[in-house]
Amino acid sequence: MNKLVLENLTKSYGEVHAVNNISLTVEQGEFLTLLGPSGCGKSTTLAAIAGLDRPTSGVVRFGDHVLFDDMSGRFAPPEKRGFGVVFQSYALWPHLTVERNVSMPLELRRVSRAERTRRVGETLELVGLSGFEKRYPGELSGGQQQRVALARAVVFRPPLLLLDEPLSNLDAQLRQSARVWLKEIQRELGLTAIYVTHDQEEALAMSDRIAVMRAGKIVQLGTPQEIYERPQHPFAATFIGSANLIEGIVEQSARRGDAIVTRLRLADGQHLDGHSAVPMAAGTKAKLAVRGERMRVAEESGANTLDAGFTTASYLGNHYEQKLMLAGQEIRMLVDVPQPERAGKIHIAESDALVFSAE
Amino acid sequence: MNTQSAETTLAPPRIGPALMPLSRSRMAQWLIFVITAVLVLAPALPILLQVFVAGPLYERDWDFTFANIGRLLGNEAIGEIALTTLAFAGLTTLIAQVLGVTAALLFGRTDMPGRRVMGDMMMWPLYLSHLIMVVGWLIVYGPSGFLTQAFARMFGNAPWNLYSIPGMAVVAGVSQAPLAYLYCLYGVARSIDPTLESAARTCGAGPLTVMRRVTLPLMLPAIVTSSALNIVIAVEMLSIPLFLGRPARIDTLSSYLYLEGIGASNPQHGMVAASALVLVVLVGATLALQRLLLSRGHRYETVKGKGTRPAPLQLGALKWPLFTLAVLYIAFVVLVPVLGLVLRAFTSYLTPLIPIWDVLTLQNFRDVFQTDAYMRALWNTLIIAVVAAGLGTLLTALIALVIQRSGFPFRRTLEALAYSPRMVPGLITGLGVFYAAIVFAPFGWLRDSIWILVVAYIMATIPLGLGAIQPSVVQIGADLDKAARTVGADWITSMRRILLPLMKPALLGCFVLLFVVHLKSYVVAIFLMAPGLEIMGVTMLGLWENGAAGVTAAFATLQIAMIAILLIAARLVFGVKLYE
Ligand SMILES: Nc1ncnc2c1ncn2[C@@H]1O[C@H](COP(=O)(O)OP(=O)(O)O)[C@@H](O)[C@H]1O
Ligand SMILES: [Mg+2]
């Protein structure tokens, strides 16, 4: 089967490791997203897979073919790899019509004229651009250009489709519908896709798996549910669903049932139980990640109920973002009813309080 | 499900054997590299060799020696010649810069009436060769020139003398002022935020103060760059020192080289090569100094303005006095020499003593058209200009693509090589190609064929062409050729199908620029002349030296007409504007 395998892939620019020792396997038919903030090395990774950039070290394999191996010095140029690539800038050739843009991959593959016409027509229909054959890219809207770029990348049915922030140049509304549409086409054609974005919503909605990246490394790899529910790194927790991070000291940590429950002492002396991946030594520094929508306002004291000071609230449409001070830190929670400025209490369920070592 | 998903993958095209160590793209890149290296180095090496060989290179037994350098250093005349060259170049540059900067400020930044038209006319000398300029000046302002005589008749002796270093510098300076003007104009249009000027106005500064205190300092990089170029051009200038300096026994390095290498009955090749080296060092030092002054950020010093032009500065009461000065300048410096030249072409004798209609004639043109060698010169010039401009445009485009758009490992070396002819004055390029054709057997066939001129012209103008094309390549988004690569095009195909078509306007502009330069060129060809290889410029040079002023003027008029037609056609048909 056509699996894409990256082994210890590194790309350095002088001292800077744009991609730092990444290993990753993408299964056939899978939609994998590289998610991370700008500058974390997503595009560099994609370029290494496409063959647009020569990595510094590591191995890139696809099926039985070694595309790059620094040991043997093997490097297949992009034109030999045959992957479809959709560029952030679309990179449509301005001097060629839509039809010629899309048929270029077929021309280069010496496909007969009749076959070309058929395939181009089909593909343009697939992306909803029939009737635009004779237009030039400059005569299309952003959304239409994006569709041409996709058509050009899939017209030759590549075994692997690489997309670098393809929706980032569209306005918010178009982005929503393009997301659904793109996902449908990927499913319909059964394409293996690697998708780059810095938009967590996009990643959660479209992906089979997400690789969360930071500073050239993969921080966590998993399904959208796993990434959201069980972040394995404070960065993953804050970048996806923007969890609050609260500092504390480990008091005790022990296995209880399936979970490891770790008790933290916060800066103001209050205590809170949360789950951690491994038992943690007492006295070490820790970070607590908790999502805004997993906290609720409490009226009475009890287990895992903390004193806090509500400050301001802002209206977000169907709910409010409530700011509050907890153990000397400002954090955010989502509430249905805004709280007046007052001293109050909040409750956090043990399983919603994720404890990480603060290294 | 949709039938489309049943479509099978179309494998990438096979381009040669898979993963061949040297793909056809890499081979093409090597080919471009080798052609450039040979073109640039082949003429340079023999000159270096000649410096250390006693006899001429074409005598087969070479006797290696340092005597040439010794003789050069021991030769007091050379020291004086070098000093003269520096004085001439310095004064020329000073004049050109003052005129050019003033014009850029007045025509580019103020509300002076007629600034558009005068700005265009200001550029004329740039399209004409120095040879034509100096002939025009001599016809009008020379010792027996039309206006000199007219002035003498009315007021006694004219106070000017072209046969002097200041005289040479004035003619050279006004010929080079357009270059300074051009750089500063775009320097101004590009970098000046009009609010800076407005801010100064609100602080109570008058328009001239604003220019002096705000606009001028912002133009400094453009002034430095154009100064360096003008020094280089003045150092290697031939016709002006030859026609204006010689009669007064003033020699510059170029005229010395010319007379020693061509004019002398027994040329001392070692000395010629050694003094050529001095010339190269002077030019190289100037360019190095320019680099040092600008240190960074001005790599592609080419001329591309912004679409929006800042609001012009109000001149107020100074408007009309400055306008008058500008009109006088354009009239007497640009218009009158060209008109004098054309008039001379249509007369048998031009003097204020005889009414012009008594001497009107077409004989000068008849002479041109009825002499085989002159007609050959016309045709040769046209053919060489077309071929050299075409091949030069192609070569520089390919060089630019390798430099900017390939993974070729030696692309930085290629860039350095391609720009290196900047250091070599045209006269030396010609000399080097001449030597190369003698020394390197594979180039032997070039001798006595017009291809030797084509090769020399191409080599001399690689930096110019590259400067015109490279910025346009830089402007094309890198994703466009990357996209072509991902859909199955190798480097060659993506350049041919995507990049080259997108570069079409720049290629056309480059072709027209090179064509004009080749049409007016003569310095490069001087050492390469042989019977049958005549070109217009060198023919004019010889004609003027032999006193055939009328035929020279007719030739010059024809050349001016050709260039004007070409430029107008390029603008009307292709929308190509040179220097923009
Ligand atoms: N050509 C280059 N030279 C030097 N550094 C680069 C180059 N290209 C990318 N980088 C650096 O590599 C890092 C990763 O870049 P990139 O992969 O484009 O990030 P992303 O696509 O995730 O925003 C960035 O810090 C960037 O500055
Ligand atoms: Mg990116």
From TrEMBL, chain A:
<keyword id="KW-0547">Nucleotide-binding</keyword>
<dbReference type="GO" id="GO:0005524">
    <property type="term" value="F:ATP binding"/>
</dbReference>
<dbReference type="InterPro" id="IPR027417">
    <property type="entry name" value="P-loop_NTPase"/>
</dbReference>
<dbReference type="InterPro" id="IPR008995">
    <property type="entry name" value="Mo/tungstate-bd_C_term_dom"/>
</dbReference>
<dbReference type="InterPro" id="IPR003593">
    <property type="entry name" value="AAA+_ATPase"/>
</dbReference>
<keyword id="KW-0067">ATP-binding</keyword>
<dbReference type="InterPro" id="IPR050093">
    <property type="entry name" value="ABC_SmlMolc_Importer"/>
</dbReference>
<dbReference type="GO" id="GO:0015697">
    <property type="term" value="P:quaternary ammonium group transport"/>
</dbReference>
<dbReference type="InterPro" id="IPR003439">
    <property type="entry name" value="ABC_transporter-like_ATP-bd"/>
</dbReference>
<comment type="similarity">
    <text>Belongs to the ABC transporter superfamily.</text>
</comment>
<keyword id="KW-0813">Transport</keyword>
<feature type="domain" description="ABC transporter">
    <location>
        <begin position="4"/>
        <end position="240"/>
    </location>
</feature>
<dbReference type="InterPro" id="IPR017871">
    <property type="entry name" value="ABC_transporter-like_CS"/>
</dbReference>
<protein>
    <recommendedName>
        <fullName>ABC transporter domain-containing protein</fullName>
    </recommendedName>
</protein>
<dbReference type="GO" id="GO:0016887">
    <property type="term" value="F:ATP hydrolysis activity"/>
</dbReference>
<dbReference type="Pfam" id="PF00005">
    <property type="entry name" value="ABC_tran"/>
</dbReference>
TrEMBL record, chain B:
<feature type="domain" description="ABC transmembrane type-1">
    <location>
        <begin position="378"/>
        <end position="570"/>
    </location>
</feature>
<dbReference type="GO" id="GO:0055085">
    <property type="term" value="P:transmembrane transport"/>
</dbReference>
<keyword id="KW-0472">Membrane</keyword>
<feature type="transmembrane region" description="Helical">
    <location>
        <begin position="322"/>
        <end position="343"/>
    </location>
</feature>
<keyword id="KW-1003">Cell membrane</keyword>
<feature type="transmembrane region" description="Helical">
    <location>
        <begin position="377"/>
        <end position="403"/>
    </location>
</feature>
<feature type="transmembrane region" description="Helical">
    <location>
        <begin position="270"/>
        <end position="289"/>
    </location>
</feature>
<feature type="transmembrane region" description="Helical">
    <location>
        <begin position="450"/>
        <end position="469"/>
    </location>
</feature>
<protein>
    <recommendedName>
        <fullName>ABC transmembrane type-1 domain-containing protein</fullName>
    </recommendedName>
</protein>
<dbReference type="Pfam" id="PF00528">
    <property type="entry name" value="BPD_transp_1"/>
</dbReference>
<dbReference type="InterPro" id="IPR000515">
    <property type="entry name" value="MetI-like"/>
</dbReference>
<feature type="domain" description="ABC transmembrane type-1">
    <location>
        <begin position="82"/>
        <end position="290"/>
    </location>
</feature>
<feature type="transmembrane region" description="Helical">
    <location>
        <begin position="218"/>
        <end position="244"/>
    </location>
</feature>
<keyword id="KW-1133">Transmembrane helix</keyword>
<feature type="transmembrane region" description="Helical">
    <location>
        <begin position="163"/>
        <end position="186"/>
    </location>
</feature>
<dbReference type="GO" id="GO:0005886">
    <property type="term" value="C:plasma membrane"/>
</dbReference>
<feature type="transmembrane region" description="Helical">
    <location>
        <begin position="81"/>
        <end position="107"/>
    </location>
</feature>
<feature type="transmembrane region" description="Helical">
    <location>
        <begin position="506"/>
        <end position="530"/>
    </location>
</feature>
<keyword id="KW-0812">Transmembrane</keyword>
<comment type="similarity">
    <text>Belongs to the binding-protein-dependent transport system permease family.</text>
</comment>
<dbReference type="InterPro" id="IPR035906">
    <property type="entry name" value="MetI-like_sf"/>
</dbReference>
<feature type="transmembrane region" description="Helical">
    <location>
        <begin position="424"/>
        <end position="444"/>
    </location>
</feature>
